[in-house]
Design goal:
The protein is of the alpha+beta class. The chain contains 5 helices and 9 strands; from the N terminus they run H-H-H-E-E-E-E-E-H-E-E-E-E-H.
């Protein structure tokens, strides 16, 4: 939050002190640059094991068969199958189920859900358009047309 406030403050000082930049282009969306900078700072990351080494990568760099490390509070970025341990998952934003669901080794974790308790490693099974949430979204768009 502090970073966000400082970026807004910096932008506001810049736009007020440089009147030559206060044309229609900048006044239409005065905080676009601030939001763009913030999205870089807050881009979601995932911890994966590649070549026997832990790496923090952007979630858009996940590939099939990556081994992802998930812990309490993490959002699941791609559909994956649990390799070890048990976790409790909140799938309410996907399925509408308000209760947490216990998942065990071999169960599928759906993208968009959250780990409520426990830690696990899982193998990425689907990415991009093949993810469960992407399929639901595209079906909804089809029905809407």
């Amino acid at each position: 939050m502090y970073i966000f406030c400082r970026l807004i403050q910096k932008h506001a000082i810049f736009t007020h002190s440089n009147n030559k930049y206060s044309n229609k282009h900048y006044s239409r969306n005065p905080f676009k640059k601030v939001v763009d900078k913030l999205s870089i700072v807050a881009s979601p990351k995932a911890t994966v094991i590649r070549n026997s080494k832990k790496k923090n990568i952007d979630i858009h760099q996940l590939v099939l068969d990556d081994i992802i490390i998930l812990k309490t509070g993490d959002q699941i970025a791609a559909d994956c199958k649990i390799l070890n341990n048990e976790v409790e998952v909140n799938e309410s934003c996907i399925t509408g189920e308000t209760n947490t669901i216990r998942k065990k080794v071999g169960d599928l974790l759906l993208s968009g859900s959250y780990i409520v308790s426990g830690n696990t490693t899982a193998k990425i099974e689907h990415i991009g358009e093949e993810n469960y949430t992407a399929k639901i979204s595209s079906s909804a768009k089809y029905v809407k047309k």
